[in-house]
Amino acid sequence: MTSGDGALSDADLLRAHLDGDAQAFGEIVRRHRDRLWAVALRTVGDREEAADAVQDALLNAHRNAAKFRGDAAVTTWLHRIVVNACLDRIRRRQAHPTVPLPDGTRTDDDRPAAAEPAAPAADHDTALVVRQALAELPVEQRAAIVLVDVQGYPVSEAAEILGVAEGTIKSRCARGRARMALALGHLRTGGDGSHGNHSAAQTVPSGPAAGRRREQR
Protein backbone atom coordinates (compact mmCIF):
# COMPACT_ATOMS: atom_id res chain seq x y z
CA MET A 1 0.00 0.00 0.00
CA THR A 2 1.19 3.52 -0.81
CA SER A 3 0.30 6.90 0.58
CA GLY A 4 -1.78 9.44 -1.31
CA ASP A 5 1.25 10.92 -3.11
CA GLY A 6 2.46 7.53 -4.33
CA ALA A 7 5.22 7.16 -1.75
CA LEU A 8 5.49 4.02 0.31
CA SER A 9 3.56 4.14 3.55
CA ASP A 10 5.32 3.86 6.90
CA ALA A 11 4.02 0.31 7.28
CA ASP A 12 5.37 -0.62 3.82
CA LEU A 13 8.73 0.85 4.72
CA LEU A 14 8.83 -1.08 7.97
CA ARG A 15 8.10 -4.29 6.10
CA ALA A 16 10.83 -3.42 3.60
CA HIS A 17 13.23 -2.90 6.50
CA LEU A 18 12.38 -6.35 7.82
CA ASP A 19 12.96 -7.75 4.34
CA GLY A 20 16.47 -6.35 4.32
CA ASP A 21 16.09 -2.95 2.64
CA ALA A 22 18.97 -0.94 4.14
CA GLN A 23 17.36 2.41 3.33
CA ALA A 24 13.77 1.83 4.48
CA PHE A 25 14.14 2.50 8.19
CA GLY A 26 16.17 5.63 7.50
CA GLU A 27 13.27 6.99 5.44
CA ILE A 28 10.89 6.40 8.36
CA VAL A 29 13.29 8.28 10.64
CA ARG A 30 13.58 11.13 8.13
CA ARG A 31 9.80 11.51 8.05
CA HIS A 32 9.24 11.56 11.78
CA ARG A 33 12.44 12.49 13.60
CA ASP A 34 11.69 16.21 13.95
CA ARG A 35 8.39 15.52 15.68
CA LEU A 36 9.89 12.74 17.82
CA TRP A 37 12.63 15.18 18.81
CA ALA A 38 10.09 17.86 19.74
CA VAL A 39 8.17 15.41 21.95
CA ALA A 40 11.37 14.23 23.63
CA LEU A 41 12.62 17.77 24.22
CA ARG A 42 9.39 18.92 25.82
CA THR A 43 9.06 15.76 27.88
CA VAL A 44 12.62 15.62 29.21
CA GLY A 45 13.30 19.37 29.25
CA ASP A 46 17.00 18.98 28.47
CA ARG A 47 18.56 18.94 24.99
CA GLU A 48 21.30 16.43 25.72
CA GLU A 49 18.99 13.94 27.40
CA ALA A 50 16.35 14.40 24.71
CA ALA A 51 18.90 13.66 21.99
CA ASP A 52 20.06 10.55 23.86
CA ALA A 53 16.47 9.41 24.42
CA VAL A 54 15.61 9.74 20.73
CA GLN A 55 18.79 7.93 19.71
CA ASP A 56 18.14 5.10 22.16
CA ALA A 57 14.51 4.84 21.09
CA LEU A 58 15.30 4.70 17.37
CA LEU A 59 17.95 2.04 17.92
CA ASN A 60 15.40 0.09 19.94
CA ALA A 61 12.81 0.45 17.17
CA HIS A 62 15.33 -0.58 14.50
CA ARG A 63 16.31 -3.71 16.38
CA ASN A 64 12.77 -4.66 17.40
CA ALA A 65 10.81 -3.77 14.27
CA ALA A 66 9.57 -7.35 14.03
CA LYS A 67 7.60 -6.77 17.24
CA PHE A 68 5.44 -4.11 15.56
CA ARG A 69 1.99 -5.72 15.41
CA GLY A 70 0.32 -3.25 13.08
CA ASP A 71 -2.51 -2.44 15.49
CA ALA A 72 -1.50 1.25 15.55
CA ALA A 73 0.16 3.65 13.13
CA VAL A 74 3.92 3.30 12.81
CA THR A 75 4.33 6.87 14.03
CA THR A 76 2.27 6.05 17.15
CA TRP A 77 4.51 3.03 17.80
CA LEU A 78 7.64 5.21 17.41
CA HIS A 79 6.26 7.89 19.71
CA ARG A 80 5.46 5.26 22.33
CA ILE A 81 9.07 4.05 22.27
CA VAL A 82 10.44 7.61 22.44
CA VAL A 83 8.13 8.67 25.28
CA ASN A 84 8.99 5.53 27.26
CA ALA A 85 12.70 6.27 26.79
CA CYS A 86 12.10 9.81 28.05
CA LEU A 87 10.09 8.67 31.06
CA ASP A 88 12.81 6.17 31.98
CA ARG A 89 15.39 8.97 31.95
CA ILE A 90 13.20 11.28 34.01
CA ARG A 91 12.61 8.61 36.64
CA ARG A 92 16.34 7.92 36.86
CA ARG A 93 17.06 11.56 37.65
CA GLN A 94 14.25 12.12 40.18
CA ALA A 95 16.81 13.27 42.74
CA HIS A 96 17.55 16.23 40.42
CA PRO A 97 14.19 17.27 38.95
CA THR A 98 15.16 20.78 37.86
CA VAL A 99 17.39 20.93 34.78
CA PRO A 100 18.48 23.63 32.34
CA LEU A 101 15.81 24.24 29.71
CA PRO A 102 16.42 24.68 25.98
CA ASP A 103 16.74 28.19 24.58
CA GLY A 104 15.79 27.31 21.02
CA THR A 105 19.10 28.43 19.50
CA ARG A 106 21.41 25.41 19.40
CA THR A 107 21.58 22.53 16.98
CA ASP A 108 24.14 19.75 16.87
CA ASP A 109 24.96 17.09 14.31
CA ASP A 110 23.09 14.33 16.13
CA ARG A 111 19.88 16.37 16.29
CA PRO A 112 17.36 17.41 13.65
CA ALA A 113 18.87 19.89 11.19
CA ALA A 114 16.16 22.51 11.67
CA ALA A 115 16.47 24.80 14.66
CA GLU A 116 13.87 24.37 17.36
CA PRO A 117 11.18 27.01 16.82
CA ALA A 118 11.86 29.85 19.24
CA ALA A 119 9.42 32.22 20.84
CA PRO A 120 9.32 35.79 19.49
CA ALA A 121 11.87 37.97 21.25
CA ALA A 122 9.25 39.89 23.20
CA ASP A 123 7.83 36.67 24.63
CA HIS A 124 11.09 34.78 25.14
CA ASP A 125 11.31 35.26 28.92
CA THR A 126 7.68 34.27 29.32
CA ALA A 127 8.25 31.15 27.23
CA LEU A 128 11.15 30.12 29.48
CA VAL A 129 8.98 30.55 32.59
CA VAL A 130 6.25 28.44 31.00
CA ARG A 131 8.76 25.73 30.06
CA GLN A 132 9.99 25.71 33.65
CA ALA A 133 6.42 25.23 34.87
CA LEU A 134 5.98 22.37 32.41
CA ALA A 135 9.24 20.77 33.55
CA GLU A 136 8.07 20.85 37.16
CA LEU A 137 4.87 18.89 36.50
CA PRO A 138 4.68 15.26 37.62
CA VAL A 139 6.06 13.17 34.77
CA GLU A 140 2.74 11.56 33.80
CA GLN A 141 0.97 14.93 33.58
CA ARG A 142 3.85 16.44 31.64
CA ALA A 143 3.84 13.63 29.07
CA ALA A 144 0.09 13.98 28.54
CA ILE A 145 0.25 17.77 28.12
CA VAL A 146 3.22 17.55 25.75
CA LEU A 147 1.33 15.16 23.49
CA VAL A 148 -2.10 16.81 23.61
CA ASP A 149 -1.49 20.53 24.17
CA VAL A 150 1.98 21.02 22.68
CA GLN A 151 2.10 18.50 19.84
CA GLY A 152 -1.59 18.49 19.04
CA TYR A 153 -2.31 14.77 19.25
CA PRO A 154 -5.94 13.80 19.79
CA VAL A 155 -6.65 12.35 23.22
CA SER A 156 -7.26 8.92 21.68
CA GLU A 157 -3.80 8.76 20.12
CA ALA A 158 -2.08 10.15 23.21
CA ALA A 159 -3.78 7.33 25.12
CA GLU A 160 -2.36 4.80 22.63
CA ILE A 161 1.13 6.26 22.92
CA LEU A 162 1.12 6.27 26.72
CA GLY A 163 -0.75 2.98 27.03
CA VAL A 164 -3.53 4.32 29.24
CA ALA A 165 -7.27 4.97 28.93
CA GLU A 166 -8.53 8.14 27.26
CA GLY A 167 -10.11 9.22 30.54
CA THR A 168 -6.69 8.99 32.18
CA ILE A 169 -5.22 11.32 29.55
CA LYS A 170 -8.04 13.82 30.08
CA SER A 171 -7.56 13.68 33.84
CA ARG A 172 -3.78 14.11 33.63
CA CYS A 173 -4.15 17.05 31.24
CA ALA A 174 -6.73 18.72 33.47
CA ARG A 175 -4.57 18.33 36.59
CA GLY A 176 -1.46 19.46 34.74
CA ARG A 177 -3.17 22.52 33.29
CA ALA A 178 -4.47 23.43 36.74
CA ARG A 179 -0.98 23.18 38.25
CA MET A 180 0.48 25.28 35.45
CA ALA A 181 -2.25 27.88 35.81
CA LEU A 182 -1.37 28.25 39.51
CA ALA A 183 2.34 28.48 38.74
CA LEU A 184 1.79 30.98 35.94
CA GLY A 185 -0.96 33.10 37.50
CA HIS A 186 1.30 36.15 37.49
CA LEU A 187 1.55 35.96 33.70
CA ARG A 188 -2.15 36.45 33.11
CA THR A 189 -3.10 39.73 31.53
CA GLY A 190 -6.32 41.71 31.67
CA GLY A 191 -8.83 41.84 34.43
CA ASP A 192 -11.34 39.41 32.97
CA GLY A 193 -9.29 36.27 33.67
CA SER A 194 -9.50 35.32 30.01
CA HIS A 195 -6.23 33.38 30.09
CA GLY A 196 -7.42 30.03 31.43
CA ASN A 197 -5.67 26.82 32.37
CA HIS A 198 -5.56 25.52 28.81
CA SER A 199 -3.99 28.68 27.43
CA ALA A 200 -1.28 28.52 30.06
CA ALA A 201 -0.27 25.07 28.87
CA GLN A 202 -0.45 26.10 25.21
CA THR A 203 2.02 28.94 25.78
CA VAL A 204 4.78 26.31 25.58
CA PRO A 205 6.34 26.69 22.11
CA SER A 206 5.78 23.53 20.12
CA GLY A 207 7.88 21.61 17.67
CA PRO A 208 6.43 20.92 14.20
CA ALA A 209 2.88 22.23 13.64
CA ALA A 210 0.67 21.03 16.45
CA GLY A 211 -2.29 20.56 14.15
CA ARG A 212 -0.57 17.84 12.13
CA ARG A 213 -2.11 14.42 12.63
CA ARG A 214 -0.87 10.87 12.25
CA GLU A 215 0.72 9.63 9.05
CA GLN A 216 -0.86 6.80 7.12
CA ARG A 217 0.01 3.31 8.29
Helical/strand content category: mainly alpha
**Count of DSSP helices?**
9
Question: Spans with pLDDT under 50 lasting ≥5 residues?
Answer: 99-122, 190-217
**What amount of the residues lies in strands?**
under 5%
Globally, the shape reads: elongated
Order of helices and strands: HHHHHHHHH
Descriptors for this entry?
disordered C terminus; single chain; elongated; 217 residues; mainly alpha; 9 helices; 0% strand
Q: What can you see in these coordinates?
A:
This protein is mainly α and 217 residues long. It is built from nine helices and no strands. Helix 4 packs across helix 7. The protein is elongated and about 55 Å long. GO terms for molecular function: DNA binding; sigma factor activity. Pfam families: Sigma70_r2, Sigma70_r4_2. Keywords: DNA-binding, Sigma factor, Transcription, Transcription regulation.
Topology:
Elements (H helix, E strand, L loop, with lengths): L9 H9 L5 H21 L2 H17 L10 H19 L31 H12 L3 H12 L4 H8 L3 H18 L13 H6 L15
Helix pairs in contact: 1-2, 2-3, 2-4, 3-4, 4-7, 6-7, 6-8, 7-8
Brief characterization of the structure:
The protein is mainly alpha-helical and 217 residues long. It is built from 9 helices and no strands. It is elongated and about 55 Å long.
